[in-house]
Amino acid sequence: MNPRFTGGVTSWVRHDRAGARAVPAPRPPLGRPSRRVLAAARLGHLAEALSRSSGLGAGGVIGGRVLLALAPTAVRELSAGRTLTLVSGTNGKTTTTALVTAALRTLGPVVTNVDGANTRARLARTLAGGSARQVVLETDEGWLPWMMREAPDATPVLLNLSRDQLHRHHEVAHVAHAWRDAVAGAAHVVANADDPGVVLAALAARDHTWVSTSALWTQDAVVCPRCGDECRHEDGDWSCRCGLRKPKPHWWVEGDELVGPAGRVRLGLALPGDVNRSNAAMAVAAAARQGVAAEDAVSAMRGIGTVSGRYDVFVTASHRARLILAKNPASWAEALRMVAATPSPVVLAFNSDGVDGRDPSWLYDVPFADLAGRTLVVTGRRATDMLVRLEMDELTDVAVAPDAAAAVAMLPPGEVNVVANYTAFQEARRVLGHGR
């Protein structure tokens, strides 16, 4: 008998309709994968090890591809009897996955894709890589429908939908409709009540936990995803004439407090900004679905100060630089709100390579005027695009640097915020890390 998939029973829970902490319920037996899946998993692991030893990469993708090529039903079999939480959305997936995982570890071991690799092959490899009953998977929004087909008993956590990588992604409404089809008939969905696209999708499920994240970005939520008319946003509420409207939330954020069915809990996160209080609200609601009390969930989350490099602080002899990832209009707007709260200088690092998306026209939807009065330095292979965009907001006293480390070194000693899109973010981690 294979010991990887015959572990002991952990608590399995049923969620009540009010969104409060779940109550115990019997757990089905943990499924044992077929010999074919077990053999494919071993060969996938071998391919992963060969990839690492040959310097070709971490190997998770090739390992997953081998697994699925040899055993197409692997994800379905490896999910049987396990409690899967699928975290998906345009922004906040990696951070929210880390927060949910921390909360659920108060119950016992958790399998998760800690590296943020969130497409088909890596999801399969993650499931094969651990035997814990609790599984939390960051799931690319385009792959969520496939994952729900393979693991229909999973609980989706739907964060948000906005424009991203315009050269390859469908429009927001298209993704919302694909999600709606994916979660149709799902037992339960944890969803952001402030996002019309998310609400349209989540309503197809049988039961819901609604979370109000107090999102300020509404530019991608003006058109109703159901009828194409205007969604009217006012005082934290939204509605359309077709009847689609913001549901009454079970959880919401007030300042630094999370309010839920059992009362209030102070967040006190190490992660900065309103956006991470929103991520935490979604994570607490998801953990409550599995029986974790809000106080216990938040206590576990407070120990997280950085997630895969996000919010890393690099200290040199003269500077303390905090690194912030911003990938698209919505996340850039949130990042600028975060850095605008302090007078510290700002480095803007901008590329348009691969996963960044080749079309940078969305820069003109980002409120860079919020940076008025701050010392600015621009770097990256599309620094010129950034300079032109800043000039449109009359931000003309801007320096240019060859990389993030040089940009920080140009600034007066003290705190610096480095805001970068994806490939520029990875480069900044590397060059700033060398200066530690």
Describe this protein's structure.
This protein is α/β, with parallel strands linked by helices and 436 residues long. It has 14 helices and 19 strands. The radius of gyration is 22 Å and the shape is globular.
Q: Quick one: overall form?
A: globular
Say how many strands there are.
19
User: What's the overall average pLDDT, rounded?
Assistant: 90
Count, helices: 14
Radius of gyration: 22 Å
- Give the terminus-to-terminus CA distance: 49 Å
Q: Tell me about the biggest sheet? A: 9 strands, mixed
Brief account:
The protein has helices spanning 35-53, 60-70, 74-79, 93-104, 120-128, 144-150, 172-183, 196-202, 274-289, 294-301, 329-340, 383-392, 404-409, 422-434, and strands at residues 12-14, 23-25, 83-88, 110-112, 134-138, 155-158, 189-192, 208-212, 232-234, 237-239, 251-254, 257-260, 263-266, 313-315, 319-325, 346-349, 376-379, 398-400, 414-420. The protein has 436 residues and is of the alpha/beta class. The longest helix has 19 residues, at 35-53.
Write the layout of secondary structure elements.
Layout: E1 12-14, E2 23-25, H1 35-53, H2 60-70, H3 74-79, E3 83-88, H4 93-104, E4 110-112, H5 120-128, E5 134-138, H6 144-150, E6 155-158, H7 172-183, E7 189-192, H8 196-202, E8 208-212, E9 232-234, E10 237-239, E11 251-254, E12 257-260, E13 263-266, H9 274-289, H10 294-301, E14 313-315, E15 319-325, H11 329-340, E16 346-349, E17 376-379, H12 383-392, E18 398-400, H13 404-409, E19 414-420, H14 422-434
Parallel strand pairs: 3-5, 3-6, 4-5, 6-7, 7-8, 8-11, 15-19, 16-17, 16-19, 17-18
Antiparallel strand pairs: 1-2, 9-10, 11-12, 12-13, 14-15
Helix pairs in contact: 1-2, 2-5, 4-9, 4-10, 6-7, 7-8, 9-10
